[in-house]
Amino acid sequence: ANATHYMTRSLELRRGLDNDELVLHYQPQIDGVSGDMVGVEALLRWNHPVHGLVGPSEIIPIAEKSGLIIEIGSWVLREACKQARIWQDEYGEKIQMAVNVSARQLQLAGFADSIAHELAISGLPAEHLEIEVTESLFMRDMADMRAKLQRIQDLGIRISLDDFGTGFSSLSYLRTLPFDQIKLDRSFVTDIDRGEEGRALAITIINMARNLGKTCIAEGVENDRQLEVLRDAGCDLVQGYLLGRPMSAQDISRLATATDG
Ligand code: C2E
Ligand code: MG
Ligand code: MG
After folding, report:
1. Of 8, 126, 177, 258, which is the most exposed, with the fewest CB atoms less than 10 Å away?
2. CA distance 161 to 57
């Protein structure tokens, strides 16, 4: 029954992709000091004709397992670059576009080339694009992963280490792999409210990022107390429901216009 269910879901996802039912929502990334929106993270949604808006936790596993993630990932990259270019034209100021990339995409031999291609057709400058990768990626072939990430960084694209501190974190990754930014996982942000040790740990990771010459962004910021601790610790960027939920491109445009004037 499970296999049938999976087959049905993956066929349906395929159809959804072909029928343009996938959409990107965007969550603001805010400068900790100025409070300005300096970027957004693109987050995948599936506008399902029957089930309504479906989130990545239901899409990504099916996409990964079926191999559809490659095509979906290409679509995400193209759509995100196109939208970032529109915002660049509308607002002049740089809005950094962060795109989540899966292990399967990064392992493709021509992945860096395909990003370069998307930048070229959208006309988006490489410095506006950032990719978010997770640690789960590096378990396999470290030297190969290093070379692949380096090629991407050499294009001028920033690389952010997502969900930092979860999973099989090895600090040696930070030395070996070319990251520009550490993304403090939501669990550490939540722990800020749960006693002195949680607060100390978050601050320590922010300091570590700074000492390594990397920027730091905190995700999942939900209240003022967390924001205050992160700001005081010098966290460069903050992201979370307190500062803005993931929203449609149109709503981001409104937000950018509102803060502009
Ligand atoms: P992520 O990259 O770590 O994204 C952050 C997730 O936390 C998002 O969930 C976001 O909606 C949620 N979030 C943001 N602020 C808060 C907050 O203040 N509180 C709480 N509780 N949650 C918050 P979402 O959109 O469901 O995405 C889940 C994961 O799916 C992402 O985690 C990412 O790993 C993956 N994903 C999303 N879009 C894509 C994509 O285009 N490609 C790939 N490969 N993965 C994607
Ligand atoms: Mg992410
Ligand atoms: Mg994350």
Report:
1. 258
2. 19
Query: 157 C-alpha to center of ligand 2: Å?
Result: 15
Size (the chain), residues: 261
Listed in sequence order, the residues at least 6 apart from 190 whose beta carbon sits closer than 8 Å to its beta carbon are: 198, 220, 222, 226
Please give the structure tokens belonging to residue 96: 């950094």
| Residue 56 CB less than 6 A away from ligand 1 | yes
Helix (H, G, I), strand (E, B) or coil at 244: coil
> Which residue shows structure tokens 């792999």?
177
- Protein residue whose Cα sits closest to atom 4 of ligand 1: 43
| Prediction pTM value | 0.96
Residue whose Cα lies nearest atom 8 of ligand 1: it is: 43
Spatial separation of the C-alpha atoms in residues 207 and 99, rounded to whole Å: 25
Instruction: Give the tens place of pLDDT for each residue, 132-143.
Output: 999 876 667 888
